[in-house]
Amino acid sequence: MKVIIVGKTSYVGTNVRDFLVKKGFDVNMVSARNGIKNIDFSGVDVVIHCAAIVHKKERKKEDKLKYMSVNKTLADETAKKAKSQGVSQFIFLSSMSLYGNTCQTIHKNTKTSPGNSMYALSKKMAEDILLENASDDNFIVTILRPPMIYGKNCPGNYRRLSAFIKKYPFFPKINNKKSLLYIENLSFFIYQLIENKSGGIFRPMDKEYVSTSYMAEVIAKASGKKIKLSALLGFMIKHTQWINIVKKAFGSLYYDDDCADKIDYITFEEAIEKTENNQ
After folding, report:
1. pLDDT, tens only, 158-197
2. What is the CATH number of the domain that holds 133?
3. Other C-beta atoms lying within 10 Å of the C-beta of residue 28
């Protein structure tokens, strides 16, 4: 099986590559920073598109145009070229953020709501175009909407949470509910999608739902730290005006059982252990 991953420096892409190579796949990572003109998809079975702009400014017109250029137009151009050169499956990394950043339970029939986020909006527009390119078994389009991804050397919110837990002995006790996705579980899921030639929209997540407080306990244990969950801090957070970053950390945001693609490969506790100890 020959695979090309578009997005040479992508965190997801590099981890998926390592996993697929261990499974015996022939995997090549390419950069689309200068476009796809020089990328040859001849003889390739699967293209995994990870190239994207995320966590960048969205204030100026040129910022918004860049989101559309990379997240939407590039994905469209890559898919069309891959299809014209005989690629049979195109896997696109989208995001849970298409449903908005509000605290909610996402069901099978929950409508997307990108709001004013150029990242989410550009991903949604890319999805719509890609699904139009799907043509049964000749060109399978597979779209993934993962929640927060964590793992060894991961960027983003997990790293900040882990650093906070290791620094302070107290943590708020709040019974919220989260969908999370360990990078190796995602890699295993993509491997299965390729093996089964599965198309459509998927919402992958770890098998277990977790609360932020339980996550803090597991991270502390894996790091050899002691932490005490404080009901008082939890009460204060729940009864104050939540700023966005606190709302994201302690609000509930998860895929319901009716739409979640739960991955029974590596448990949450094992995933945190491997993440914190760089395994």
Report:
1. 998 999 999 999 999 999 999 999 999 999 999 999 999 9
2. 3.40.50.720
3. 12
User: 12-26 pLDDT, tens per residue?
Assistant: 999 999 999 999 999
- Please state, in angstroms and rounded to a whole number, the distance separating the CA atoms of residues 90 and 68: 19
Give alpha helix (H) positions in 25-108: 61-67, 75-84
* pLDDT-based confidence at residue 105 (cuts at 50, 70, 90): very high
pLDDT of residue 243: 64
Among 206, 224, 245, the domain-final residue is 206
Statement to judge: residues 39 and 85 lie in one domain? yes
Tokens of 17: 């590559």
User: Residue 177, Cβ neighbours under 10 Å: how many?
Assistant: 14
Nearest to residue 203, comparing CAs of 109, 68, 267, 88? 109
Burial state string for 234-264 with b = 16 or more CB within 10 A and e = fewer than 16: beebeeeeeeeeeeebbbbbbbeeeebbbbe
Q: Does residue 205 sit in helix, strand or coil?
A: strand
Contact 239, 182 (CB under 8 A): no
Q: C-alpha angle with apex 184: 178 to 188, nearest 5 degrees?
A: 105
**241 and 144 within one domain:** no
- Alpha helices (runs of H) in the chain, residue ranges in sequence order: 11-22, 61-67, 75-84, 118-133, 157-167, 183-196, 212-223, 231-238, 244-250, 268-276
- 112 touches 53 (CB < 8 A): no
Q: How would DSSP label each residue in 103-116? A: SEEE-TTPPP--TT
pTM (predicted TM-score): 0.94
